[in-house]
Amino acid sequence: MRLDLNAISLKSSTRVCYRNFTVFRKTFFLGFPATLFEPLIYFAVFAIFIGTRKEGVEGRAYLKFLTPSIIVLSSVFSTTLESTVCVFMRMSLQKLHLSIISTPVNSEDVAVGEILWATTKGVIFGTITGTVLAIFGFIDSPWALLLPVVIFLGCSLFAIIGITLTSIVRNFDNFQYYFTLVLTPMVFFSGVFFPSENLPKIIKILVWFFPLKHFMVVTRELTLGHISPRLFIEIAWIIVAIFILILLPLKLLKRRLIN
Amino acid sequence: MTINQVVKIQNLTKKFGSVTVLDGINLEVHSNQCFGILGPNASGKTTLIRMISGISSKTSGEINVFGMNIDSSARAIKAKLGVVPQEENLDVNLTVEENLLMHARYFGLSKITARERANKWLKFFHLYDRKLEKIESLSTGLKKRLLIARAMIGDPQLLILDEPSDNLDFWCQELVWNKLKQLREEGVTQIVATHNIEEAERLCSNLIILDSGKIRKQGDPLGLIANEVPPEVIEISLKDIKCNTILDRVGKEVHCYKLQRGKLFMYAYDGLKIMDVLRQMGIGKIDMVFRKSNLRDVFMQFSDKELK
Questions:
Q1: pTM of the entire structure?
Q2: Is B54 helix (H, G, I), strand (E, B) or coil?
């Protein structure tokens, strides 16, 4: 099955995205506390057990180190949950996508629309978490205002990965492999809870391939107000990865829906 | 292509791995027809209409809808189609009305047009009073009506339905059939895939009988009946009496017969003569039906090969 780029219409994609937003808006306040509390609980726990000790990490208080981590985790988790389990539910149980592609919306538009929506959800939750932490006084650099843009890029990448997986898994249980074998190690090695600078070289090379690592660095540098060439290299890494991977979910979701 | 040709399919084949689901299908649907695809389960009906709807890929062959090729112009074709799936796939997170409005959005309709159309079709299918309800509170019949209303939201020129009366009670079935007839009178061409012979007879102006992925017969229902089976049928429930005893007595009057689940079907050009013989034999009217042959009799020839 050939993938034709002309088969994508941004207008149609936003309609798919809009459908999800409409449903989200209806139930926002039902699910909102749970999604927001999770990262804040992480933060509170660390604040209580570690933050009260005054020794710094990388020369800064640990809580300052942890602030961008919590923002990244909350956005990546909402994007990942949306693009895997939620999309799978809409696709396989509700057969919603089948009804959508019976209209002038193509399967490629559905893929792009779902990626857009999962990304948007990550941006919404990442931004809310960031705002709350800023209110508590854990962010002081004005550069942090650019965070939504960075979160958008980072989350797009995770949405692309999520939709790709959703297009190939047979049932919900298959996602477990991704969560436990990919996502969890990625969180531990990407400098989320502790710095990844002192890892052995071989692991460092491996970690370079983790999208979370680059997303994490960019977010951290921005919240700390460190604007350096490294920042742009990391952003470039994310953008290049998006361009390399973007066709994969489009192709695979088409195969899944059309056969 | 002639002006009123809506669908033209040439040499269409579909394979899933090594299994051939559709094998060399050729057909034409003209405007204002209700075109039936009649076949038993797993005969390839759903696959065929999904391919016409542009939501399933084909292995080889060509499909043209409204004179456009489905491979190159799927989006333009789909804008003129209404599709009613067999499996209910309404958006459970939205209300009845929102389902229609959201579908209108997929078609790119403006908000005002969407609302007008939604109201029109909700009224047409007697759903207007329930427009604020959730999908889960609807009965099977209401869901089916909403599915058809949803398919009409883009004002399609061609409505494609997969088992439209499946799982419906008698009253709802009548309502759906009447509404489909009304739509056809208003100029909406229809393609109906069904295993329900009564449905095919009631709705279709033309049909194909599909079996194991091949077209077995093609024509209008009355023509098919006239050409394929003798005009009269006598059905007898075999209880105390043996099949051979009857057949020996009625002899040459029976053109052909079929035994199915304890029932003997005798086809004849002059059924009354057989009736006379049966009456002499003392076979009661209760166990016997004398009727004109119908599409079921044509269909039975192909569904299994017991006819002798």
A1: 0.90
A2: coil
